[in-house]
């Protein structure tokens, strides 16, 4: 309880209580206070045995955090826990994440390409989420025959799949996957 109160007063608006009864908290961490380029949300669940017997259960949420970057940061957090078993470690975790974000901001890594969330999208720029896709103009009769043909000899080309940027909201991450299809076989493939 003391740790939660301290973190709440240190981080102010960046500290969020998701569920007081279940001890679920979230903190938004930036690389700097003025104009942050790199941001990450750390969500933690404090199990009944924390801090003496159990580590916090955590989730790192950032659309740009994937692969090797994710593994390195997760390993760093777990190492901090191992070095401080039985102690409160959330502050150490937050500061380690901030340190990583500051290193990213000072390195040559380009600024992350973050799309607006649905709440942030202005009514006039809603077209930002449309793919550049123009339907193929085909002869309708020929197309109808093609669609109804279920012949296994026809080796249809698999449509290209377009992957959107992941969007994280609370504990859920969403990512769109779109493909233009013209036959039922392409749908199942």
TrEMBL record:
InterPro entries: Impact, RWD_dom, UBQ-conjugating_enzyme/RWD. Residues 2-104 form the RWD domain. One of its GO terms (cellular component) is cytoplasm. It holds the Pfam family RWD. Residues 105-127 are annotated as: Disordered. GO terms for biological process: GCN2-mediated signaling; regulation of translational initiation. PANTHER family: IMPACT-RELATED, PROTEIN IMPACT. This is Protein IMPACT. It comes from Podiceps cristatus.
């Amino acid at each position: 309880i003391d740790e939660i109160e301290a973190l709440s007063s240190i981080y102010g608006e960046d500290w969020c209580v998701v569920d007081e009864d279940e001890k679920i908290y979230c903190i938004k961490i930036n690389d700097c206070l003025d104009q942050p380029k790199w941001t990450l949300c750390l969500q933690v669940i404090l199990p009944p045995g924390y801090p003496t017997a159990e580590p916090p259960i955590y989730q790192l949420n950032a659309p740009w955090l994937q692969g090797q970057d994710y593994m390195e940061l997760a390993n760093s957090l777990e190492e901090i826990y191992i070095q401080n078993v039985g102690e409160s470690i959330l502050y150490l975790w937050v500061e380690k994440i901030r340190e990583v974000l500051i290193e990213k901001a000072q390195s040559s890594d380009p600024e992350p390409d973050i799309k607006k969330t649905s709440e942030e999208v202005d009514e006039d720029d809603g077209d930002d989420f449309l793919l550049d896709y123009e339907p193929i103009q085909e002869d309708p009769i020929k197309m109808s025959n093609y669609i109804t043909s279920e012949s296994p000899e026809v080796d249809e080309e698999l449509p290209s799949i377009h992957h959107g940027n992941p969007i994280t909201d609370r504990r859920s991450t969403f990512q769109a996957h779109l493909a233009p299809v013209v036959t039922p076989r392409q749908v199942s493939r």
